[in-house]
Every structure is written in C-alpha cells, then in structure tokens.
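Action item from last meeting closed. Structure (618 res):
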C-alpha cells in the first residue's frame, strides 16, 4: 500500500515547498496590486538654491521666457563652459516656481545617459506615476506619456549640461534599465514631448546638438562672456566689498569676462584675505603663463554646480577638449595648433596648410598615436579642415571674424589648451608646428609684401615668447629676422630690437659668430640701434660685421657694401666727418664698379659724397 507524503507549512514558511511529487506542478505568482496614490500638487524639483549674487544679463531671461511661453516651446542656451548658462537656467527656473506655483518645474542633469535616466526616474516619483515600480517598467515611456497628457497641467523641463549628442541620439539608450524591453531601440530624444502644455529649456556647449533638439536656429540663444558692467557687478557681489574700479575693470578683462573665472578669482581672493587683494591677484595673474595657470586651477567650490563638477575654469574646459579628442582627433589637433597664435585674426590659410602632410592628406593625431583617424580618408584636406572648424565652432571654442577665413579664440581657452597639451607631453610638438607654419608663411618684408606682413605680424610677436629647439630653432630665428626687419621699416623699434636680438642670439648659437645668418642679424640689430640714435653701440657692431663679411663674402658683396654704407652714416652722426667721407667714397666707387654708373644706389652714394665734401670745405 503506497503512502502519500504529507507536506505541512508553518506560519513563517513562504514560497513553494514540495515533499514528493509524481506529476507536474503549475505555479502562478500574484504580485500585490499597487495602491492608487493621491495625485500630488505641482511642485519644483530644482536641485540648486537661488543665487543671491545672480547678475541679470541684459534680456536673456526675457528671451527664454518668450520662447518657453510658446506652445511646445523649446529653447537652448548655447555657449562655452563657464559662461553662466546653468546659472541663467537656475534663476529662470526659480522665477517660474515663484511666479507660477501651478506649474511643474523639472530639472534633469543631461551629461550622461545614466543621469538622464536618473532624472526621469525622479520625475516619475515626483508625479507618482502608476506602474513605475514594476520590474519591467519603461520609465522613459511612462514619463513621456504623462508629460504629453495636457490634463496633468503645465510643466517646464530643464535639460542641463546636454553636451553629448550620443546621450540623446544613440540607439543603445533603450537597452538600459529604464526601457524594460531590451530589444527596443529608441533614441532618448524621442521621449522629449512636443505637447502644448510643456516647454523645454536646454543648456549646452554643443551648437549642433542645440539645433537638433530645438529644431530652429531662432530657438538658440548664444551666451557669451559678460558685458563689462555685469562682470564688475558679479565681482563685487562675490567679493562682498567694493574694489578699486580701475583695477577691477582690468581684472575682469584679463579674465576674458568669463563668469566662472571671475567667481573663481573672487573665491581665491576671499580665501586668502587680507594677504591677497584684487590688486595682488591681478599682478600675480599678469606675471607669466605659469602663474595664470596656477590661479585658474584654484577650485573654491560652488553650491550651484553639478556634484563633482570642478569650479576651476581650466578643468571645466578640459571636458570639452577631451570630448572633441574622442570624437574627432583632427579637430583636437587644429585647436591645439590655434592655441599658439595670437587670439585675434588667426589666418585660416596658414592653419589649412599646417594641417596637411606631404602626401596631401591630413596629419595624424598627435595626442594619441594609436587613434584611428579616418574622418578624412578620401584625402580631401579642405573638407576635413572645414569639418574640424565646424566642430570647434559648435563647441564655442573658436569663432569666425567678419572676413570668414580668420578665427579668434579667448585667451584663457588658449592657455587651457596649452596646459592640457602639457599633460600629454605634446606642447612642444604643436609649438614647433606653429613656428614652422608661420615661418613658411611670413614673407621677406619688401614693400609689395607689407600687407601680408601686417596681417601676420601679431602672430610673429607672439612667437617671441617661444623657445623652440632642434631644427625649428633656425626657422624661428629666420622668422624673427624677417619680423624684426618689418618692424624696423615700420618704425616699431622696440619690438624690432627684441626680434633682431633673439635672432642674433639663436643664429650665433646654431651657426657661429661668422655665419652669414648671424652677420645678417647683427647688421639688422645695428641698423635698429642707429634708427634710435644709439650711434656708438651701432658703430661697434657695424665694424664687426664689415670685417667678417669681407672675409666671408668678399669686399664687393652687396651685404658687405650695405654694412659700409651704414657705418659711414654712423660715423657722420658722431661728428667723424672726414672718416665718414672717406668710407662713403670707397662705398660709392664699389657701387659704381658692381652696379654701374647709372644705378640708383650708385647715384645716391655719389650725391652723398658731394654733399659731405661741401659740408667739410664750407
């Protein structure tokens, strides 16, 4: 006789318990039904408090309000990191919360997919969405449906720091934990409603993404550095005390009128008061590039920046650099090259030539030798260059001037880029590339080249601060020689003397004292001294050059003769009339012998001989 086993369940037992079974078991799970929740009243979930130091910047807030008041309105604040986009959004969100209490205000940090998903989960919790706690709940779809339902009231959604297009348009979004069905692949942008009862405010560094999310250029508001009056107001508020107006104005201008840099400077000054002041900070900032970088790395903390985000302006821009480097390395190369030019009037034609190699293709990325750079595999250098420019403009790191083929950058962006390059030990590489490109582009300063010289001269002046090594040093010396000669012809004697002096120093170190290039630098330096009336110093150098050129080039070489002419005038200016006349006669005979009786230089020297003789004889 078979016996059926008895299975007993105690009060604490849960789940399925089976003793012995000779058939099949069918199990059903019945989860508890969610209790209906009372619909909440509209509220604002702004994660940042209102800033008591906020400075209203013209009509930007009015522009935001106008666009957000339209049905299904969308507006994007676009600008460089640190220009105050999020601060404007915070202030606007608080004004809406205070002035329209019946309107929902939602805030989503949109820097990564994970943060967007977290933000939508918070919205679902705030409005108590039914079904949100189910294991397979598609939070994005649930929130989208709720926002699209006009019966749920009016709302505004802030997407802060929406800088990465992949967050919104990468099809892998739907495979995340919020999607439920891992087979579905919808980009997150499709979960942003276009309903009449809601509006979306976006802050972004990416102009291209701003256009894609808003659909219209008219819905993009460019946020640049502050007006000087606003910048001074911000500095005073952050310091908590008035500063010398002239010094304060110089400081905010030195900081490129960038709000984050101004707030950072004020925090630094406050933290070190009374041993530091606005005057001391400015003086330290102006000393050299290293001091500026040290000050701009200071992170004093900021209550109204996303957790983990640095308040140091150099670190803020680094995020943009690294994103560009990962997406388009050739654009990172172009930005790196541009950072060594004068920030204004950067010539596109010089850059375009500088980004091509001998084979006609674009240069390889220099920050990561293993990076696959096939963005321009068809070999069309110009198209690749334009794509690089477009990306840098989209991220507000550069801008075009009125001519279209010239660019400009903020000086602090250039400094930040250089410091970023230093971390990869690549600064010298791009500095040398800058010297080589500028050296190849700056012409000899004949009269017909003056217009081109003028357009490039500011960049030659920047090159004075560099110290290239190796083969590039000779190029640098040649560039400074031509730049010094142009400055001398234009009457800019101080900078001409600096350039000629450095060219002389480098040529002498590389080629020696008697080399032709060295003698040319010495001769130019002497001519610049003469132009300033420093005859005694110039005379010593000219004597040195004449003797060396006679030995090296010959007595009748044009360079030797030029030195004779210069020395004759130096003696004449010092009252050595007889010596000057004798030397000028030798010079005139040599010119007649080499160039002929009717050559203008021969005639000019003969005329000088006649005039000088008459002065001596009376």
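Sequence:
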């Amino acid at each position: 006789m078979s016996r059926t086993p008895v299975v007993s369940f105690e009060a604490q037992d849960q789940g399925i318990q089976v003793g012995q079974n000779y058939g099949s078991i069918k199990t059903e799970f019945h989860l508890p039904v969610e209790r209906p929740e009372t619909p909440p009243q509209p509220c604002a979930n702004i994660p940042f408090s209102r800033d008591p130091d906020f400075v209203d910047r013209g009509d930007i807030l009015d522009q935001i309000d106008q666009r957000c008041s339209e049905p299904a309105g969308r507006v994007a604040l676009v600008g460089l990191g640190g220009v105050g986009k999020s601060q404007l959004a915070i202030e606007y969100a608080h004004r809406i919360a205070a002035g329209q209490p019946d309107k929902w205000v939602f805030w989503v940090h949109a820097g990564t997919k994970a943060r967007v998903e977290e933000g939508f989960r918070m919205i679902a919790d705030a409005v108590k969405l039914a079904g949100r706690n189910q294991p397979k709940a598609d939070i994005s779809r649930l929130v989208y449906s709720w926002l699209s339902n006009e019966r749920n009231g009016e709302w505004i959604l802030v997407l802060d720091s929406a800088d990465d297009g992949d967050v919104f348009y990468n099809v892998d979004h739907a495979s995340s934990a919020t999607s439920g069905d891992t087979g579905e692949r919808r980009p997150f942008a499709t979960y942003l409603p276009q309903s009449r009862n809601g509006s979306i405010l976006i802050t972004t560094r990416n102009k291209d993404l701003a256009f894609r999310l808003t659909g219209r250029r008219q819905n993009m508001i460019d946020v640049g550095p502050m007006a000087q009056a606003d910048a001074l107001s911000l500095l005073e508020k952050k310091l908590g005390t008035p500063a010398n107006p002239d010094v304060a104005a110089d400081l905010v201008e030195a900081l490129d009128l960038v709000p984050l840099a101004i707030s950072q400077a004020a925090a630094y000054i406050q933290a070190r008061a009374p041993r530091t002041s606005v005057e001391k900070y400015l003086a330290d900032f102006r000393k050299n590039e290293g001091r500026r970088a040290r000050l701009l790395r200071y992170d004093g903390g900021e209550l109204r920046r996303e957790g983990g985000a640095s308040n140091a302006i150099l670190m803020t821009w680094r995020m943009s650099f690294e994103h560009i480097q990962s997406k388009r390395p050739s654009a990172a190369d172009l930005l790196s090259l541009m950072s060594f030019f004068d920030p204004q009037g950067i010539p596109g034609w010089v850059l375009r030539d500088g980004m091509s190699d001998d084979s006609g293709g674009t240069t390889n990325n220099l920050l990561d030798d293993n990076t696959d750079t096939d963005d321009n595999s068809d070999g069309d250098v110009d198209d690749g260059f334009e794509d690089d420019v477009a990306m840098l403009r989209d991220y507000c790191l550069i801008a075009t001037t009125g001519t279209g083929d010239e660019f400009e950058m903020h000086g602090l962006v250039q400094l930040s880029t250089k410091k970023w390059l230093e971390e990869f030990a690549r600064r010298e590489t791009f500095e040398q590339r800058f010297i080589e490109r500028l050296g190849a582009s700056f012409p000899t300063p004949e009269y017909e080249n003056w217009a081109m010289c003028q357009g490039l001269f500011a960049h030659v002046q920047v090159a004075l601060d560099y110290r290239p090594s190796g083969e590039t040093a000779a190029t640098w010396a040649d560039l400074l020689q031509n730049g010094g000669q142009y400055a001398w012809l234009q009457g800019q004697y101080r900078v001409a003397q600096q350039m000629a002096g450095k060219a002389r120093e480098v040529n002498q170190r590389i080629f020696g004292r008697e080399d032709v290039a060295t003698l040319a630098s010495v001769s130019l330096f002497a001519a610049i001294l003469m132009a300033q009336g420093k005859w005694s110093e110039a005379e010593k150098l000219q004597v040195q050059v004449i003797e060396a050129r006679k030995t090296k080039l010959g007595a009748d070489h044009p360079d030797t003769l030029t030195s004779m002419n210069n020395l004759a005038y130096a003696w004449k200016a010092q009252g050595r009339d007889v010596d000057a006349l004798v030397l000028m006669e030798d010079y005139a005979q040599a010119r007649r012998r080499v160039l002929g009786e009717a050559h203008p230089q021969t005639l000019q020297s003969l005329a000088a001989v006649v005039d000088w003789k008459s002065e001596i004889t009376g």
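Note appended to the action item: The CA atoms of residues 7 and 18 lie 7 Å apart.
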